Amino acid sequence: MNATRFQVGYKFETLALIPATWAETSRNYIESRESLVVRNYAQYCSVVRTGFGKSRLILAGEVDALWDAKPCRPDDPINWVELKTAATPLSDRDVLKYERKLLKFWIQSFLLGVPKIIVGFRNKEGLKSTIVGEGVWRIRKREKGTVIETFRIEESGHGNILSRDFLTWRSQSGQGHVS
C-alpha cells in the first residue's frame, strides 16, 4: 500500500472527527478542519474479554472514535466508530473487491465490539466522493462457494440466529446476556 492511501485515510479521520462533542467544539474549529494538519496519534483502544469454553482471551485494538460520549456506567457498551476508506467501486470487479474488503472491516469491528463502520470512498485522485455509514455486517462465504454474501446486522439483538440452548449456555457460563 502506498503512502498516499494512508494519507487519505488519516485526512478522512481529520475531517470526520472533532475532539469533543458538537456543543463543546467551536464553530471555527469545525469549519477549519479541511486545513488542519493530519495527525495519526489520537486514538482509542478497545479491550474486550471473551472466551471459548474454559479458555479466556483478552483482545485489544485501536479504534478511531466515539459516536457520542463514553457512557457514565463502566458496564455499559461504548458506542465506538471505525472509519475506513475504500476506492469507489466503478466495475463489477471493484464491487467484488470492496465486498472482500468489508470482511476485513467487519472482523476488526466485530472482535472489538465496534457497532458502526463509516466508509469514505475515494477516487483515483484520493478525494472522498461518498461517505457511507455501513453499520456492522455479517459476512458469509459458503464452503466451496465463490460468492461472498453480506448481511447488515440489526442495531440490537441477534437476528434470531442463536439457538435457545446456546443462549442458555452463554448466560450460565458467565459470558453474559445476548439480546
Report a brief summary of the structure.
With 179 residues, the protein is an alpha+beta fold.
Comma- or semicolon-separated keywords:
single chain; flat; 8 strands; two-stranded antiparallel ribbon; alpha+beta; four-stranded mixed beta sheet
How many strand segments?
Answer: 8
The number of helical runs is 4
Mean pLDDT, all residues: 75
- SSE string, helices as H and strands as E: HHEEEEHEEEEH
Strand coverage percent: 25-35%
What does the overall shape look like? flat
How far apart the termini lie comes to 39 Å
Q: How much is the radius of gyration in Å?
A: 19 Å
Uncertain ranges: none
Q: What can you tell me about this protein's structure?
A:
It is a single chain. The chain is α+β, with helices and mostly antiparallel strands. Helices cover 27% and strands 28% of the residues. The chain has four helices and eight strands; from the N terminus they run ααββββαββββα. Strands 3-4-5-6 form a four-stranded mixed beta sheet. Strands 1-2 form a two-stranded antiparallel ribbon. It is flat and about 55 Å long. The chain starts with a helix and ends in a 7-residue tail after the last helix.
